[in-house]
UniProtKB/TrEMBL annotation:
GO terms for cellular component: endoplasmic reticulum; membrane. This is EXPERA domain-containing protein. It comes from Aspergillus carbonarius (strain ITEM 5010). Belongs to the EBP family. Its main location: membrane. Keywords: Membrane, Transmembrane, Transmembrane helix. GO terms for biological process: sterol metabolic process. The keyword Transmembrane applies.
Length: 302
C-alpha cells in the first residue's frame, strides 16, 4: 500500500508540474502572439485532428519573394560555414578529411540552431485563435481554441517554414511527432555538432585545453558516430509515420517533392552515411594498430 500511495503522490506531483509548465508556455505565447496573414487565415478553417495542421498545399510552382528569401538564407549559412572553415582550418595546413568534417558539422549546428530552432519557436509561440468546436482531439498543448505553427505567423523567421510547408504541411503546423524529433535534434544534435567542431579543431591543430589530443580524438569520433546515427534515425522517424498513413501531408507538386523533400532530406542521409564510413575507417585503423602493438609486446615479452 505504501508503494501504491507513493506512486499516486508522484503522479499527482507530475500532473501539477505539467500543468504549471503548460501554463508557462501559454503565457509566453500570449506575449509573443503573431498576427495571421490574410493568405493563411483561410487555412485556420480547415484543421485536421491530431496536430492542428493546415491542409497540404495545392499551390502550383512559382518563384516568389518567400522562396527567394528562403534559398538566400540557406545560401548565407553555406557561405558563412565555408568561410569560417577556411579561416580556422586553412587548406594548406590541415587534412582534407578534417576540413570536410568540420564544414559539415558546422552546417549541421547552424541548421539545427537557426532553422529548426525557429521552427520550434513558432510551434510553441505562434498561433491563431479558433473556435474549440473546430478542433479535434488530440490537440497540441491541450489548447482547443488555438492552432500553432509557422503558418499562423507573419514574422520573417516563419517564411522559410511556410515555404517548406508547401512540400510537407506538417512543418506549417504543430505536429507532435515532428516537434518531438526536433526538440532532440536542436537541443542535443545541435550541441553535439558544435562540440564536434571544437574537437575537430583541437585535434587538427594539436591544441587541447584539457586532456590529451588523443583523448579528444576518441571523444570526437565517438560523438560523430552517435550524431550521424541519430541523424539517420531521425530522418526515418520523420517520414515513416507519414508513409505508413498514405502521405496525407505531402504535396504533389514536382518541384516541392524533388527539391524540398528529396534533395534536402537526402543530404542528411548521404553525408551522415559518409561520416559513418570515415568513422569505420578510423576504428579499423586504430584496432589494427592496437593488434600489431599487442603482437609486438607478446614477441618481445614486454
Amino acid at each position: 500500500m505504501a508503494f501504491k500511495d507513493s506512486l499516486e503522490s508522484l503522479w499527482a506531483a507530475s500532473s501539477v508540474h505539467y500543468d504549471n509548465a503548460l501554463q508557462f508556455f501559454k503565457t509566453l505565447a500570449d506575449q509573443n502572439h503573431t498576427a495571421v496573414t490574410t493568405e493563411n487565415s483561410t487555412l485556420v478553417e480547415s484543421q485536421i485532428g491530431g496536430s492542428n495542421l493546415p491542409e497540404p498545399s495545392t499551390m502550383p510552382f512559382a518563384i516568389d519573394l518567400q522562396m527567394v528569401c528562403s534559398f538566400l538564407f540557406v545560401a548565407v549559412l553555406l557561405v558563412a560555414a565555408y568561410a569560417f572553415t577556411n579561416r580556422v582550418l586553412p587548406a594548406r595546413e590541415h587534412e582534407r578529411r578534417f576540413r570536410l568534417l568540420f564544414f559539415w558539422h558546422l552546417i549541421d549546428a547552424l541548421v539545427h540552431f537557426t532553422m529548426e530552432g525557429t521552427f520550434l519557436y513558432h510551434c510553441f509561440f505562434s498561433y491563431a485563435a479558433i473556435s474549440p468546436s473546430q478542433n479535434r482531439e488530440p490537440v497540441f498543448l491541450g489548447d482547443k481554441d488555438r492552432v500553432y505553427g509557422a503558418t499562423y505567423s507573419s514574422w520573417p523567421s516563419a517564411l522559410l517554414w511556410q515555404e517548406y510547408a508547401k512540400a510537407d504541411s506538417r512543418w506549417g503546423g504543430a505536429d507532435a511527432n515532428i516537434i518531438s524529433i526536433e526538440l532532440i535534434t536542436v537541443l542535443f544534435g545541435g550541441t553535439a555538432a558544435a562540440t564536434i567542431c571544437s574537437w575537430i579543431y583541437q585535434v587538427s591543430t594539436g591544441r587541447s585545453k584539457k586532456g590529451s589530443v588523443a583523448e579528444k580524438r576518441g571523444k570526437m569520433w565517438f560523438t560523430i558516430i552517435a550524431l550521424a546515427t541519430a541523424e539517420l534515425y531521425g530522418g526515418v522517424m520523420t517520414f515513416m509515420p507519414e508513409w505508413l498513413t498514405g502521405s496525407p501531408s505531402l504535396s504533389g507538386n514536382w518541384f516541392h517533392v524533388v527539391v524540398y523533400l528529396a534533395f534536402f532530406n537526402l543530404v542528411w542521409v548521404f553525408i551522415p552515411g559518409w561520416v559513418l564510413y570515415e568513422a569505420w575507417k578510423e576504428c579499423k585503423f586504430v584496432f589494427a594498430r592496437h593488434g600489431k602493438d599487442s603482437s609486438s609486446r607478446k614477441v618481445t615479452g614486454k
